Amino acid sequence: MTKKTFHQNGGRTWFIVFWFILPFTVLYSAFTIWPVIQGVIVSFHRWGLMGKQGWVGLENYQKFLGDRFFWQAMQNTTLFVVMTVPLLVVSAFFLAVLANRPSRAKRFLRASYYLPSILSVSVVSFITIYMASPYMGFLNQLLHSLHIIPAEVEPMWLSKTALVRLTLVVTTVWWTLGFSMLLFLSALQDIPEQLYEAAKIDGAPSWRVLLSITIPILGPTFALVTFLQIIASFKVFGQIYLISGGGPGTVTRPIIQYIYTTAFTKNNLGYASAMSYALFLILIVFSLIQLRIQNKKD
Amino acid sequence: MKRTKPIKLSDIVLTALSILIAILFLTPIVWSLACSLKTEGMKITTAFDWFAPPYTFENYPSVIFGSSVSTWLVNSMFNAAMSVLLTIVVTSLAAYPIAKLEFKGKSWLFLFFTIGLIVPGEATIVPLFITTNQLGLLDSYAGMILPSVAVSMNLIIISAFFKGIPNEMIEAAKIDGANHWIIYSHIIIPLAKTVLVTVSIFAFMASWNNYLWPLLCAINDSMFTLPVGIPTFAGTYTVDYVRPMTANMVASIPAIILYLIFEKRIVKGVTLSGIKG
User: Fold this and answer.
1) Are strands A51-55 and A45-48 parallel, antiparallel or unpaired?
2) What chain A residue is nearest to B91 in terms of C-alpha separation?
3) Does residue B169 share a domain with residue B38?
4) What is the pLDDT of residues B38-80, one digit of tens each?
5) Class for domain A74-297, per CATH?
6) How confident is the model at residue A53 (pLDDT cuts 50, 70, 90)?
7) Domain region containing B121
8) Is there a contact between B149 and A228 if contact means CB atoms under 8 Å apart?
9) Same domain as B218, residue B138
10) Is residue B81, in this structure, part of any structural domain at all?
11) B47 and B27, same structural domain?
């Protein structure tokens, strides 16, 4: 058992504790916990930007089950998760391995791979919009200059559905990969040197070492990064909202954007709250799995 | 005689590849920096013209002082500074009894404080908007700052660090007649500088780059932060690349400088938050 720090009578200790935890408890309760409860209350009402308009019971929940825009947004979000997460996990691992090789450029590599992560979503989105726009954008000019695509071909990165999806995925991977890369990097550095020594004596080629030593040891890190990325990708909003606006039409609109539009453009906060709980449920399940993995890992 | 190890071809290929990818990662950032240093209406015929001189810095004063960017810059800085200050004070206060005092119901309190780890802020944004509105804090600095102050992850990181501070130091101070406030402010806080700096950096980055919440909370143009303002700014300059990219750089340079100064701490902090959670 750990040694007790202070032996005092309970009442007095609580009086002291009370003042220490008061500011945190107030802010945390008001802005983290209360909205979760408030959301349930709101979801049972018709609720506009001006306030409560009347009790509707479960109507808002029944409504989204039959709302094709809700399901489309869910499908778009899921597709985004499926396209982004594997690419992110694999490339983050790959870049971590590259940045971990003994070389003079080590620090430069790590900083370059991580730097996009510190930019704000608006900056990232506007760089993408300006780079990927047709005729004047840097991307098409570069592809033309390097003769990768013929001069008369002008890919519409921001308006053709398949290309828009690709643009959104590539932007997201470029922007957010740094965090996962650092997690892999620190896990790689924790692998004891002796494990590699043995393989070196056996004369195993480095790709074999990677496959049969590094990757199996990093199993828990792979699981952790995967779940963190699934959670992050389900919450996607900013870059899609800013780059494609959810378009063309609504084919790339993610669930948070639909919730946002329902609440603040269509003035239906009750319905938006009900839909939020569908997302909430999905995220809680993945968060609990992720916390389990982390506890096991520690 | 000492023989140098033969350089393998695969090593050269991998090094070249890793540097090529690094350049690829930096290109969009360098490109927008290059745009911000161009004069308006420069002729661009090939992709490489973007990076060619002449350069000029005159876009920066003209964008910062000739538009709302200066207001947004001040708002972003104020929000980030207040958010860091409040996060550090409020969280370290709560972390002290959790790490160093024994009291009834402590484990329940800690459990309550960790619920926030699994509450996805994005999924409670609508009720948060209603709560903030009911408190009369919409379109105010308090409304933008306060919701991001009490964060479970920060409490866990700081209290874990406090736990590592030896109890003997506290016992000694107690014998000298120090009360808990003195122990907290004169012993614990000075010893915890490293972790407090790490949490500060993350609180700064989170506030500086926050988009969804200020987008909802700031209603008047004069309350916008840079991330909220930039899209409206860029929207009015569709043909012009120079001014939007300058605004982009104004929003990014403080974060980039912070990263370059505190790189080690940031790398450590990311690992900590990813592993400790």
Assistant:
1) antiparallel
2) A24
3) no
4) 887 777 777 788 888 888 888 899 888 888 888 999 999 999 9
5) mainly alpha
6) confident
7) 59-276
8) no
9) yes
10) yes
11) yes
Helices marked H in chain B — which ranges? 9-36, 59-65, 69-100, 106-114, 125-134, 141-145, 152-163, 167-175, 180-182, 189-191, 193-209, 212-217, 226-235, 242-261, 263-276
A63-67 average pLDDT score: 91
Q: What are phi and psi of A257, to 5 degrees?
A: -65, -35
Are B26 and B111 found together in one domain? Answer: no
Nearest by CB to residue A269, choosing from B50, B101, B126, is B126
Q: How far is A214 from chain B (nearest CA, A)?
A: 17
How do residues A143-181 score in pLDDT, each as one tens digit? Answer: 988 888 888 888 889 889 999 999 999 999 999 999 999
3-state SS, residue B104: coil
Residue B56 distance to chain A (closest CA, Å): 20
Where exactly are the structural domains of chain A? 74-297
Chain A residues lying within 8 Å of B47, measured CB to CB:
138, 141-142, 144-146
Q: What CATH number does residue B115 fall under?
A: 1.10.3720.10
- Note whether A276 contacts B123, CB cutoff 8 Å: yes
Return the residue of B nearest to A255 by Cα.
B123
Q: Largest Cα–Cα distance in chain A? A: 83
Interface contact flag, A138 B47, Cβ < 8 Å: yes
Q: Computed over its alpha carbons, how large is the radius of gyration of chain B?
A: 24
Indicate whether B266 belongs to any domain. yes
B44 and B170 belong to one structural domain: no
